[in-house]
Amino acid sequence: MNYVVDHGSIVFRTGTGTKFWNTMRHPCALEIDGFDAGTGKAWSVVARGQAHFIVDLREKAAADALHLDPWQPGSKSHYLRLTLDALTGRRFKATRPDIWNTPLWDARSELFH
Questions:
Q1: d(CA 107, CA 70)
Q2: Alpha-carbon distance 13 to 54, whole Å?
Q3: What residue ranges in 1-113 does DSSP mark as E strands?
Q4: What ranges do the domains of the chain cover?
Q5: Taking Cα atoms as reference points, which of 16, 31, 36, 27 lies closest to residue 79?
Q6: Rounded mean pLDDT of 23-49?
Q7: How far from the centroid of its chain's Cα atoms is residue 58's Cα?
Q8: What is the pLDDT of residues 56-71, one digit of tens each?
């Protein structure tokens, strides 16, 4: 999902559908993760709050100027602003990815047969 941090809130676009309606009815959370291959450091940030549909014409024009161009085809005509109630995050040294690889047929897989 494309997003922009704007004046202490997060603005994003979506189409009419499940994401739009659930976002409007319930508190939301957005997790943003990153990794710096040069340092081996990773970070994870979680923003929590309530999303509001941007209807004011001036605010919608300002959101349009943020260049939130969708990467995926389809109508994404609704701008939403996530007003933050909480923002948490952490930085950590990333482990080697192969540590988490497990054989497909290990003892735990028998639980699912």
A1: 43
A2: 10
A3: 3-6, 9-14, 28-36, 41-53, 78-93
A4: 3-94
A5: 16
A6: 91
A7: 25
A8: 999 999 999 999 888 8
pLDDT top residue among 47 and 19: 47
Mean pLDDT of 6-30: 88
pLDDT at 72 (0 to 100): 81
- Record the tokens describing residue 3, joined without a space: 């997003």
- Record the pTM: 0.74
For 26, the 3-state DSSP assignment is coil
Q: What is the mean pLDDT of residues 14-28?
A: 85
Residue 61 and residue 47: Cα distance in Å, rounded?
24
CA distances from 4 to 40, 74, 110 (A): 25, 20, 44
In sequence order, the β-bridge partners of residue 39 are none
- From the options 3.30.70.3090, 2.30.110.10, 3.30.300.180, 3.40.50.720, give the CATH code of 3-94: 2.30.110.10
> Which residue is listed with tokens 């959370």?
29
